[in-house]
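Why should sequence recovery work at all? Because a backbone constrains its sequence more than one might expect. Tight turns favour small or flexible residues, buried strands favour hydrophobic ones, and helices have their own preferences. The token representation captures these environments compactly. In the example below, the structure is given first.
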């Protein structure tokens, strides 16, 4: 799931920074407290994560610290909970007014203890924190990226710059003589992207990023730069949707091969098996109003029946997070990125996420939808395809609610705030869509 989906968490104007010593169990303090940097607009997780490079530059300029980011944390230091950048220093040199300390006096001592525990003994936290939340990870990842770029004939220029660190991935780039490459790391339970790209490329699928190297065991991926993401050009957006539809329609016959290579079956029938838990057991129900919870419980049987209806188009590739922040390239060669949520299922569930996050005006949606559906015109008449898209749109939010539930099961306790409320929001959207006529 994309970081841009992540709910904001209020912070103060001055961002607290937890800086771990490069080798010793020490933290940088100023008069016993965590240092702070002023960053314009860094008011929530979503914005701060997209501003990570800016935040790191502010640390360099204001504190004299060259940092490698580990993760974001929400912690109550003084007053309301604040967003904290957790990082480690590249060396032990400190700027004026800073000192290495064994602890803090500003209310962040429990954060100090947690970070040190996650770094030195990650197994005591269950589920464990991401690998990149530990100091030794960066050196190995950067060394691999440099080596792979050299082998590919694109000698690196500069060092690996991380631009995003959160539960699901660490993302960064490294310059090269023939253009920059993007590095991505995923935790063991979220490495579908490596399998997806390998199998789709073997099938000769277009619209994929150019893969430089993959390390399946460590969950590392190196890709050539595909250009800016999030195109505003309507033609580029429409081309990306058509490209996804074509990919899906052309790979329906490859489903047995995909499943054999490790793709997961997440058909709507499989989602039906999760409804009882989603509607009754998950902690995310606390984000719903009592009346919404009552309505869900009353619809459990109908929801299961709706999910078990035989699809009118064959199960195929599901991207799982298709919207335009995960699209690069151009109208003539769209590139679809971020295949971490890829699975086998009803292809039209990707329309649910696209309509929710694609920022497509309502007046334009029917034409946009028809453009996507043209890829399926050999299977069914357009009117039948529209009806099928409407049916899947009605229950598709349950597919995404289940996606968030599965992710949350694997998040370490200090990361669960990142996706809090999103499962519940998809349940709320399901209730809303259920009340609308087909």
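From this structural description, the recovered sequence reads:
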């Amino acid at each position: 799931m994309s970081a841009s989906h992540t709910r904001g968490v209020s912070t103060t104007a001055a961002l607290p920074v937890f800086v771990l010593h490069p080798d010793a169990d020490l933290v940088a303090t100023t008069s016993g407290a965590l240092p702070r940097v002023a960053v314009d607009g860094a008011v929530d997780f979503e914005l701060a994560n997209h501003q990570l490079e800016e935040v790191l530059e502010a640390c360099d300029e204001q504190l004299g610290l060259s940092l490698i980011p580990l993760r974001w944390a929400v912690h109550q230091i003084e007053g309301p909970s604040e967003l904290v950048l957790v990082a480690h220093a590249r060396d032990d040199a400190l700027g004026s007014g800073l000192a290495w300390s064994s602890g803090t006096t500003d209310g962040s001592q429990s954060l100090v203890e947690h970070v040190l525990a996650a770094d030195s003994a990650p197994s005591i936290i269950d589920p464990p924190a991401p690998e990149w939340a530990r100091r030794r990870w960066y050196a190995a990842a950067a060394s691999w990226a440099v080596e792979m770029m050299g082998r590919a004939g694109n000698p690196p220029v500069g060092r690996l710059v991380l631009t995003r660190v959160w539960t699901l991935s660490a993302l960064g780039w490294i310059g090269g003589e023939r253009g920059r490459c993007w590095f991505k790391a995923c935790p063991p339970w979220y490495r579908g992207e490596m399998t997806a790209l390998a199998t789709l490329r073997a099938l000769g699928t277009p619209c994929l990023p150019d893969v430089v190297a993959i390390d399946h065991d460590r969950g590392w991926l190196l890709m050539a730069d595909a250009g800016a993401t999030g195109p505003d050009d309507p033609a580029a957006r429409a081309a990306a949707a058509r490209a996804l539809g074509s990919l899906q329609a052309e790979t329906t016959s490859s489903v047995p091969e995909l499943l054999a290579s490790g793709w997961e079956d997440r058909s709507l029938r499989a989602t039906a098996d999760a409804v009882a838990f989603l509607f009754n057991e998950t902690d995310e129900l606390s984000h719903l109003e009592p009346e919404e919870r009552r309505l869900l419980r009353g619809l459990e049987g109908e929801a299961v029946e709706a999910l078990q209806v035989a699809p009118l188009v064959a199960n195929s590739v599901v991207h799982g997070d298709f919207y335009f922040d995960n699209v690069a390239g151009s109208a003539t060669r769209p590139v679809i990125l971020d295949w971490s949520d890829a699975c086998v299922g009803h292809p039209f569930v990707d329309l649910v996420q696209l309509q929710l996050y694609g920022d497509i005006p309502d007046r334009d949606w029917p034409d946009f939808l028809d453009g996507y559906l043209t890829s399926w015109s050999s299977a069914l008449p357009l009117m039948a395809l529209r009806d099928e898209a409407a049916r899947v749109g009605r229950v598709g939010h349950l597919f995404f609610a289940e996606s968030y539930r599965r992710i949350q099961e694997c998040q370490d306790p200090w990361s669960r705030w990142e996706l809090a409320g999103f499962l519940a929001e998809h349940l709320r959207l399901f209730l809303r869509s259920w009340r609308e006529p087909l």
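A few observations help interpret the result. The two ends are 28 Å apart (CA to CA).
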